[in-house]
Amino acid sequence: MSDPTRPIRTAVVIPAAGRGVRLGPGTPKALRTLGGTPMLVHAVRAMAASRAVSHIVVVAPSDGATEVDRLLHEYPLADRTELVVVPGGQTRQESVRLGLAALPEGIDVVLVHDAARPLVPVDTVDAVIAAVRAGAPAVVPALPLADTVKQVEPQPQGTPEPVVGTPERSLLRAVQTPQGFDLATLRKAHDTVVEGEGATDDAGLAERLGVPVVVVPGHEEAFKVTRPLDLVLAEAVLARRRATDGYV
């Protein structure tokens, strides 16, 4: 039975074991520099900017955890936030599961954040945490879609694809991270849902269990750096922050 007098503790798991091939060959995506600083460092700082976050677990490539740990400790965080680096698995789901296993006792709320979303504002992080603390078992930040979306019948690459439907745009949202969960809920989802059963994010795993997921407002600067053009946009956002907000 939980103790209502005990402070609610929040941790973050950042899976960063992917190679990011769409950004081109070379350094793993999370270690690509943004304004002279690795994207992973920006992502960690974004989570640590929330005073509610007391613990961050970075899940690194299995063959590079020592190097990632050394790198991150070159960019120290405030004393209130503990940082741990652990080796990841072969898939994102496996890496998140390993990150959850590395959490200390006493964590109530856990966020899962993409290392490739380095510029998420702290207000978005805090909004997700607040919704979970208020009782939602699963929370995602998201934005309304600007473009019309078509459902198609997939064809080989380069072949025209027949349109089979046009979903109502006003009912759709583009989901971002960090996604927030009651820790017990997310652990159950990862222990229960089999890899490859159609879930493409952690909230999707919770949905597969019938867990209600709620949406809070996301932010346009919480975009994912996936392709070279995204990196150009991220550099522009970072330059603007440094010029106007004193961002490091």
UniProtKB/TrEMBL annotation:
Gene3D superfamilies: Spore Coat Polysaccharide Biosynthesis Protein SpsA, Chain A (3.90.550.10)
Top-level enzyme category: transferase
Record carries keyword Nucleotidyltransferase: yes
Record-listed E.C. numbers: 2.7.7.60
Pfam family for this entry, one: IspD
TM helices/strands, residue ranges: none
Family indicated by similarity: Belongs to the IspD/TarI cytidylyltransferase family. IspD subfamily.
Name the UniProt record assigns to this protein: 2-C-methyl-D-erythritol 4-phosphate cytidylyltransferase
Lineage, opening ranks: Bacteria, Bacillati, Actinomycetota, Actinomycetes, Kitasatosporales
